[in-house]
Specification:
139 residues; mainly alpha; two-stranded antiparallel sheet
């Protein structure tokens, strides 16, 4: 089950195994697209899980990724960008622990859908070397 605040200040809930609501998924995707990079730029240097987070972003935005996988990843990414969460992000040493736990739970469910192309895109976006054994796709 996941619970999130909607634009009216109310809450929306979805249950495991429930088909994702396309309208809610589209709103979540748009919010992540609009806010992910700004938040990542502010905090990337403090995140030990920045590579997985960014690869998850690319996987979630990939229309070839199955809908339920995209919904799972978008939920974890939306939690990351929320200004208010279980443990405030500004608390040194603990602030991103809850974000890491949410992402780890999502990745445990869908990690086989994060493809080399997503990891390559993440490495490029972060200005890092390509993952071991990976070659850049042809231009």
């Amino acid at each position: 089950m996941s619970i999130e605040r909607d634009e009216t200040g109310g809450f929306e809930a979805s249950f495991d195994g429930e088909a994702p609501d396309n309208t809610r998924l589209a709103r979540r995707e748009q919010k992540v697209r609009n806010e992910f990079w700004d938040k990542l730029k502010r905090v990337a240097g403090r995140l030990p899980f920045v590579d997985d987070l960014t690869a998850s972003y690319y996987c979630a935005m990939d229309t070839a990724t199955p809908l339920k996988v995209r919904a799972t990843l978008l939920g974890a990414l939306a939690y990351f960008i929320l200004p208010i969460d279980l443990v405030p992000d500004f608390i040194a040493g603990l602030g991103f622990g809850d974000d890491a736990a949410v992402l780890a739970a999502a990745l445990a469910l869908v990690s086989n859908h994060i493809k080399p192309v997503h990891r390559i895109a993440a490495a490029k976006a972060l200005g890092k070397e390509l993952p071991d054994g990976e070659a850049a796709p042809p231009a």
